[in-house]
Write a structure and sequence with these properties.
Number of strands: 12
CATH class of the largest domain: Alpha Beta
Oligomer: single chain
Helix content: 40-55%
Distance between the termini: 43 Å
Number of domains: 2
Radius of gyration: 20 Å
CATH topology of the largest domain: Spore Coat Polysaccharide Biosynthesis Protein SpsA, Chain A
Largest sheet: 10 strands, mixed
Order of helices and strands: EHEHEHEEHEEEEEEHHEHHHHHH
Length: about 350
């Protein structure tokens, strides 16, 4: 008998995608009695919730508020865990699945009990021959980004290869792992929630891996918004200070300060200096101090690996297609890659 899986579909004004996404779910090659589809609507204004209420064969939760990515998904995850599922699969509102996606992700997870999450190979919805993600990358200064976006598929990418974290757009989590490390962190609200959860999984000695046989198609588009800069900058710093040992943070401090100076200048030029100042205000607030203090206690409680093992998968380059520029590619990346090559050798704890 195959493991029981719950698919969590988080919706926010997702009406244009619902028909095609749920059509793909109906075609999944997985026993229907071992599969539960849970739709969560984050207070959509486009009538999405009404569509879900009329659907047969799904479990629906409608929120009266936009809870964000983390808390919205957690509504569905908590229900799934109460139903004693073996795995939880998170699916973005703008992503659909290949018919073998769930079966192949489960097969890979079942092959090794140390696998905590399996990310599906993500291709672009409108250009299915083009990659969207082969796994999440973490820069040593805290940036998180997807690997491979905009590239052609490379057949030499190994099925089951370890990744730093799995994208929350199309990922299978082991239920026992979630019970051990916790769910997505609502304090982060938007961005870096999947990165932070992947970090906790690795802290326990478990792995995040990529399945090249489990395929999702994501209607991905990099959206530059000033509000996005706020959440990404705030959460980048919070996550780093929540999980790295103090001596690692001390070692990185000169480079983090240098980065802040550079980002401050870019914020002025880019028109998001107000958001950058709001990040500083948020980080200096008592709620952020309490958050980091609590997270560090929780991090120590589940940690079974060293920082050396954690940072072994970090990168010194920002290899994201949408941020490519002469300054990034020819100046910043070579310099930071050289810095990280040296700093990583110092981290022995």
């Amino acid at each position: 008998m195959l493991p029981k899986v719950a698919i969590i579909y988080l919706s926010y004004n997702s009406k244009p995608y619902i028909d095609e996404v749920f059509s793909s779910l109906k075609q999944l090659n997985y026993p229907k009695e071992r599969l539960e589809i849970i739709a969560v609507d984050n207070d959509s204004s486009d009538g999405s919730a009404d569509i879900f209420r009329e659907m047969d064969g799904i479990t629906f939760f409608g929120s009266k508020d936009n809870l964000g990515f983390a808390a919205g998904n957690n509504l569905g995850i908590n229900h799934a865990l109460l139903e004693n599922v073996d795995y939880v699969y998170l699916l973005n509102a703008d992503a659909k699945l290949h018919s073998e996606a769930i079966l192949e992700a489960v097969r890979l997870a079942e092959s090794d009990e140390k696998i905590g999450s399996v990310q599906s190979l993500m291709m672009l919805w409108k250009q299915p021959e083009i990659l969207n993600s082969t796994g999440g990358m973490v820069h040593f200064l805290g940036f998180g980004f997807v690997k491979g976006n905009g590239s052609l598929w490379q057949s030499d990418i190994a099925d089951g290869s370890e990744i730093t974290y799995a994208s929350g757009a199309a990922v299978l989590y082991r239920a026992s792992t979630l019970r051990k490390v916790g769910l997505l962190d609502p304090f982060l609200f938007l961005y870096h929630e999947d990165l932070e959860l992947g970090w906790r999984i690795r802290l326990t000695g478990q792995k995040n891996v990529l399945s090249t046989k489990s395929i999702a198609y994501h209607d991905y588009e990099f959206r530059r918004s000033i509000k996005k800069f706020y959440w990404m900058e705030r959460n980048r710093i919070l996550v780093h200070f929540s999980h790295l040992q103090w001596k690692t943070l001390l070692l990185l401090t000169p480079f983090l300060i240098g980065l802040e100076i550079g980002l401050f200048v870019f914020a002025i030029k880019g028109g998001w200096i107000k958001e950058k100042l709001l990040v500083y205000r948020a980080l200096l607030s008592p709620s952020s101090w309490k958050y980091v203090a609590r997270k560090r206690v929780e991090s120590r409680a589940i940690r079974s690996v060293t920082d050396k093992e954690i940072v072994s998968l970090f990168t010194g380059k920002i290899a994201h297609q949408e941020t490519s520029s002469f300054v990034v590619d020819k100046i910043a990346n070579p310099m930071l890659a050289g810095v990280w090559w040296g700093v990583r050798k110092i981290i022995r704890w």
